[in-house]
Amino acid sequence: MPTLTVGQTLRFSLLNKTRKHLRGEVEIIIDALLSMFAIKHTRNTLVGNEYVRGVSGGERKRVSIAETLATKSTVVCWDNSTRGLDASTALDYAKSLRVMTDVSDRTTITTLYQAGEGIYEYMDKVLVIDEGRMLYQGPASEARKYFVDLGFYAPPRQTTADFLTSVCDPVVRQFREGFEDSCPKTAEELEKVFRASAAYQKVLEDVHDFESHLHATGHVDRRVFQESVQEQKSKRVASRSNYTVSFWKQVLACTRREFWLVWGDRTSLYTKYFTIVSNGLIVSSLFYKTPESTDGAFLRTGVVFFSLIFLGWLQLSELMKAVSGRVVVARHKDYAFYRPSAVALARALTDFPLLIPSTIIFCVILFFMSGLDLEPGKFFIYLLFVYTSTICFTSLYRMFAALSPSIDDAVRFSGVALNILIIYTGYVIAKPILIADKIWFGWIYYINPVSYAFEGALTNEFHARTMECAPNMLVPQGPGIKPANQGCAVPGAVPGQTSVSGDDYVASQLDYSRSNLWRNFGVLVAFCVLYLLVTVIATEKLSFVGSGGGALVFKSGKKQRASKADEEKGGNAGDASMLAAARRTQTQDEVLGELVRSDKIFTWENLTYTVPTADGPKRLLNGINGYAKPGVMVALMGASGAGKTTLLNTLSQRQKVGVVSGDMLVDGKALGNDFQRGTGFVEQMDLHDETATVREALEFSALLRQSRDIPRHEKLEYVDKIIDLLELHEIQDAIIASLGVEQKKRLTIGVELAAKPSLLLFLDEPTSGLDSQSALSIVRFLRKLCAAGQAIICTIHQPSSDLIQEFDKILALNPGGNVFYFGPVGDNGSAVVKYFAERGTDCPPGKNVAEFILETAAKGGQRVNGRKVNWNREWRESAENRELMDEIRRIKTDRAKIVAEDKTVPPVAHEFAAPVWEQTVQLTRRMFIHQWRDPSYMYGRLFVSFIVGVFNGFTFWKLGNTVADLQNRMFSPFLIIMIPATVLNAVLPKFYINRALWESREYPSRIYGWVAFCTAEVLSEIPGSLIAAVVYWVLSYWPTGLPADAPIAGYVFLMTLLFFLFQSSWGQWICAWAPSFTVIANILPFFLIIFSLFNGVVVPYSQLNVFWKYWLYWLNPSTYWVSGVLSVTLTGQTVECAANEGARFNPPSGQTCLEFAGDFVRQAGRGYLMNPNATEDCGYCPFASGAEYLDSLGIEPGYQWRDFGIFLVFCFTNWALVYFFIYTVRVKGWTFGFGALFGWMEKVGEKVKGVFVRNKDSSTEKSEV
């Protein structure tokens, strides 16, 4: 786990594999493991990953070995564990495996790609297989001789591992002279020969001797082993259990690890507290100093309601942690560290202390700023309910995470569940109405934990509270009217009293009772336990972690030419027949003949690259010189962290931060705006639109990157040739996401070749993750490209001797971006060997030259006189470097003359090959296809619209015309405001992924520009948004009984369409601006809170805080949506108060209600007398029409089209902001001042971390002393 330190990782592993009375040895074992693998200096360093800064890649591999050693297993298997490591680091890794095997006396089985001779020599035995058949098994030192004796030829300096894999490849293998016909060739023949060999008989003898030993000793070894394993277990662990410590010990260990994880990721913790404080202040300001009178009754209810759901809403972030941690949990289950349910319980136990400060901070802010009852007992009960409801929300989310296959499903289900819980809490619709009138879904109230928390917290707040009737609620009013003849227009009021009891208010309005306080708390706790129990069962019974090696998936309607992707290579593994190889050679010649030939030369001189860091500027490249000519292939080599990829990105103009200095010229001239379009760049990570097919990816590249002067049919014909060239014909209709490692690498190269790069081809680790023969096949193809006139610069990690021979020159880097060699390879590496031999370091015979270079640079060297060699300085002062500089100057001078003498008119240099219209059309088409093939995105949005629409429509089924129904007619349209919280969580990741692909590969390659990207993103969202809007409107509008008049229904329909368009575009511009997804997750609550609460519904305009009232209310888009929809749906609505609604008062003796209160009603201009002719128990309904109710909300009827227009402007503004931020932030690199802010925050964070680390280091030193 990236946010654990190395020491914590090992300590946790050992705690789960060590019984109690041996726990004192844990620290001793940790020290031994760290020393054994030479990583003692990393004890307090985070493990890290590609996103979290930690130990290096090689050190991380050794941590994995040490963790595996802690399992105390007798057999350990490793699958291609050296992938992505340079040769030196891979050798250290293999050495660690050797040490682990020897020290712990265990069996190690490993598969290795492109293994160097040094790695191979660490192995005792080797197994060679092909097509599932055993071709050889025996001592590793005898394998080469075995196959040579069969007739195979092993070239000089070819590693044994490369030679063994070449035996299985009919295209690459070579035969000794005279053995071309007699040597076995097929896997079946090789297996037959092996089974008849002495080597196979030795295998059978070894097996027979072992079985005989077991039989002769009565299987005593097995019994001793079983007894030893049982002795290592805790007493409470069953003998048949796979685990070493008891379940509760596992829970305690996992709980400790959860705290370590939180502390290791303190930045996220501090960010969360910042979000809580800032949003708490915003919400509190909305309810600031809630009136003590009846004017504050509804507001006080809102304070309690939002207190209960806000922290629960923020806990949605736990979904990502729960789902993303599955891979680690599955691996640790295989290691028998702990049961998956132990993690579920540990996370729950961790919540208890971690949520206490969050709850206290939020509750203190909201409780005191909003003016809730300051009685200490009430505060702590309020705090208890908020805390417990937050625990309950968190448990609910984790339950959905445990039941969901993916994070998208978990977010979708949790978001919809949150909306349902909010609707059926009793705040939106009072409990009596839910139970009595909402027969469809009213029962949800009883299974809603928030409803019990709401009743408990609300009755606690209103208990023993006396509220004076607000003047605007006192009925009737006028000169000479006595309090005995007045009533208060609030539920729970008693005629003749000008104050209202809080207990009576909640009892009358919501049917709540303070006597249920602790029952409600108990039910809330029971729900927490229930959700936790389901989570525990689900984590034990369900597993959504894939096993890898899935089937190839083809697009609909295409024949599946392959059914199962090979786990290592995928489908077509490159075992083509000789006839196929001949056809491929012919196709290669055709394609190579069509490449755009260029005689331009690219030079770089004194190239330096510096980036800003928390500790000041850091130089990553230091004065690098070199050149690339047509027909010359340059290999960039160096240890991990030397700067190979950095140099490649700098040369290809892909750096976005930092300062680049030095000269980069083409034919002695500065780079033009078409430089990046004229180059190809093969990414190391194989970045593609995963839902496209192989052919579609190639056609997309060809159509948008080849010259606009080339006809479309010629571009597509060229794609056909590329497909044949790279052996992609059988998988041309396969979905990219289902391809294997080698297939994706070939596709990545094909995408760049389809563009016909005219100047240069850059490749970053094109052989990473491939076996030796696949890597050699790709490099040999690059050699042919180079021979056809292409200039190639390629970084490479673990080159074999055969592979390095394909390159013309080597540019070798040391850490810090320092060149220590740039020159020819020579025949069998003779030029390289000569250079280092002249400086006192000889390359042993048979040694791989590439490995020799890296090992020499990493370990340093000595001259004959014993003085150490600084290879960086040695190169700078060498004659070879001076020759290089002379050559660069000559190139610049000669090429500049040739260009100056060339009188031909150069073609217009377009930054992009295709016009903007063509870019937009092709990209929009691709995005629509993406949505069609990945329906989970669209289904998720339709699911939300359908579920929320159904619950809205049937919860507010056929509304009447009482005051309660009038309020429900307001809340029914208002519920649409809750949808963005779920929809944005789907829109934001999708846009962010598309933006990342565009920024990292497709824009730097000048495939399409920012206008096409923005337009395609906007257009691709519109159909789905409109469909979702129609679904929601149909399901929510008609069942509720809102006006069926065509103008009104049509207006609401149009506003619903606009709303769904608005929320998609809203999420897009937020993502266009935000620098990272972490920032998006942290700023999103600000937007959603303002959008949902500051629109006059939760707090009417007249009661808004002055600070927000005159600007934020009017800047909030939802203000105009709510105003427009409510003004058309409520204006013509008549109101008839129910018997329990309105104000009740008794007129003076001898007067009717009309005689006594008629003048008041006329002067008020609002409401009516319910029984004007009665002489007692008069009823006053505060509203006679929907227009009067709108007036209480500060909404003026008749401005619906103004509101429509303004909301439409907000939609267009969102789209405009997408273009604006993509251009300014992504293209131009503007930060609007936030870059400095984030940089300052990072510096502060690093200093704080440094203090903790220093304190921890000092305490460790003291304890060691």
Structure description:
The chain folds into 7 domains: 1-123, P-loop containing nucleotide triphosphate hydrolases (Rossmann fold, 3-Layer(aba) Sandwich), CATH 3.40.50; 265-445 and 525-541; 550-594 and 679-753, no CATH class; 596-673 and 757-914, Rossmann fold (3-Layer(aba) Sandwich), CATH 3.40.50.300; 918-1127 and 1198-1230, no CATH class; 1143-1181, no CATH class; 1235-1265. Helix content is 55%, strand content 9%. The chain is built from 47 helices and 23 strands. Strands 14-15-16-11-17-18 form a 6-stranded mixed β-sheet, sandwiched between helices. A 4-stranded antiparallel β-sheet has the order 10-9-12-13, sandwiched between helices. The two termini are 30 Å apart. Mean pLDDT is 84; it is low at 560-579 and 1256-1265. Belongs to the ABC transporter superfamily. ABCG family. PDR (TC 3.A.1.205) subfamily. It comes from Echria macrotheca. It is found in: Membrane. GO terms for molecular function: ABC-type transporter activity; ATP binding; ATP hydrolysis activity.
Cα Rg: 37 Å
Terminal CA distance:
30 Å
Strand content: 5-15%
Q: What is the makeup of the main sheet?
A: 6 strands, mixed
On the 0-100 scale, what is the average pLDDT? 84
Strand order of the largest sheet: 14-15-16-11-17-18
Number of strands: 23
Show the helix and strand layout.
Elements: H1 6-15, H2 26-36, H3 57-69, E1 75-79, H4 87-104, E2 107-111, H5 117-121, E3 125-130, E4 133-139, H6 140-150, H7 160-166, H8 187-195, H9 198-216, H10 220-232, H11 247-264, H12 266-286, H13 297-314, H14 318-324, H15 326-334, H16 340-370, H17 376-403, H18 407-423, H19 431-437, H20 449-462, E5 466-468, E6 474-475, E7 487-488, E8 499-501, H21 502-510, H22 517-541, H23 578-594, E9 602-611, E10 618-628, E11 633-638, H24 644-651, E12 659-666, E13 669-670, E14 679-682, H25 694-705, H26 712-725, H27 741-753, E15 760-764, H28 772-787, E16 791-795, H29 801-804, E17 809-814, E18 818-824, H30 830-837, H31 849-859, E19 861-862, E20 868-869, H32 871-876, H33 879-901, H34 916-933, H35 935-955, H36 963-974, H37 979-1002, H38 1010-1037, H39 1046-1073, H40 1077-1093, H41 1106-1109, H42 1112-1115, H43 1117-1130, E21 1143-1145, H44 1153-1164, E22 1168-1169, E23 1178-1181, H45 1186-1193, H46 1200-1227, H47 1234-1264
Helix pairs in contact: 1-2, 3-4, 11-16, 12-16, 12-40, 13-16, 13-17, 13-20, 14-17, 16-17, 16-22, 17-18, 17-20, 17-22, 18-35, 18-37, 20-21, 20-22, 23-26, 25-26, 25-27, 34-35, 34-38, 35-37, 35-38, 36-43, 37-39, 38-39, 38-46, 39-43, 39-46, 43-45, 43-46
